[in-house]
Amino acid sequence: MIKKILQKNENKVIAKNYFFLVLLQAANYVLPLLTLPYLVRVLGAERYGLVMFAQSLAIFFNVFVDFGFSLSGTREISLQRNNKSKLSKIFWGIILIKLVLIVISFFIIITIVYNFDRFSNDVELYLLSFGMVVGQALFPVWFFQGIEKMKFITYINIFSKVVFTLLVFLLIKQTEDYKLVPLFNSLGYILGGLFGLFFSLKYINFRKPGFSLIKSLLRDSFKLFVSNFAISLYTASNVFILGLFAGNTIVGVYSSFEKLIIAIKNGFIPIYQAIFPWLSKQPNKAKIIAKITPFIVFIGMVISTVIFIFGTQIIEIIYSDSLISSYSGVFKILGLIALFSGWNMLYNTLYFPSTKEYGTRMKILITGGILNILFGVVVAKLYGIFGMAYVVVSTELLLLILGRYYYKKKKKKEFESQIT
Asked: Residue 301, exposed/middle/buried by CB under 10 A (0-12, 13-18, 19+)?
């Protein structure tokens, strides 16, 4: 289905970007998955859970520093790709905003880790994890995606993740080495970010962004930032909540499942990222989304079914840990995310941003995020890890229902405007 659409619309460029985006996602999620079973065995569920808890805090700051530019930046760069002067101003405007947000974030995390007992016992762990925030802020994926040149940063990202993977296997040998995980992870992100920033200079000049441009970038991206923060409320917050109420060991178990599910979930992202710059310029966006939907739903159903049937065996093979295997039912529940999330992202990650319906997207994601937090806190206290799994799946289903509802409303308006 997607192939037929691409054949009619500059398929070579989109297919090429898709290929490199797949490699990019593989570097981001598949390579870390290679170290996952090893880290769980060497560090143990409790220490691994502590590392994941610190990482979940860093994710909140990632969302803050990104400020929605992963979507709005891509869109603006795509629209101005043939105007080097405007392209350069937008680029440096976004970089400047991100640098300021990094400084603000650093002062916030310093305040948190030195003033709350839950964090002050492992200050180094949280500060080392913050390096991921710096690295991702420097890595201009949004720029290369906008100009539809993913080759360089894909290679850079793969290189940095390979370095991280090798360091883990070579230097982490015992439980006490747990602080090396965020250190190596942050070094990989920062190294990739610096190289990505360097290669971007090939396509731009230095142009000082004016105050009006900075203000415009912030205004246009604010709703996306709020939306992405809402996303973090039903992703990173789940690990965070379990860490507060259920302890590091349960966090380690849950994170072991969540890492696998996120890798599967993010398998849809290269498709959406490759299509997004092109779709943003098309007049019949709703019609294109309708053609893609059956393909996405079919893939999601296949993956969810495989996890439901073979989930226990998959967990036993990957982790070989009796404690983690005893919770394999949680993994089967989370498997439904492959269907619900892949489908709802079609609307909330691809369609609404491409139509600049940032407000609609924000309403949907805030609703899901707030309900996830409210029910997550209550359910985590009463039913622990199983309750949290049901809350997460229910949130993804709610996002699908809301996303499809507003998509159909927008599709109807689009069809009526074409008739008139």
From this structure: middle
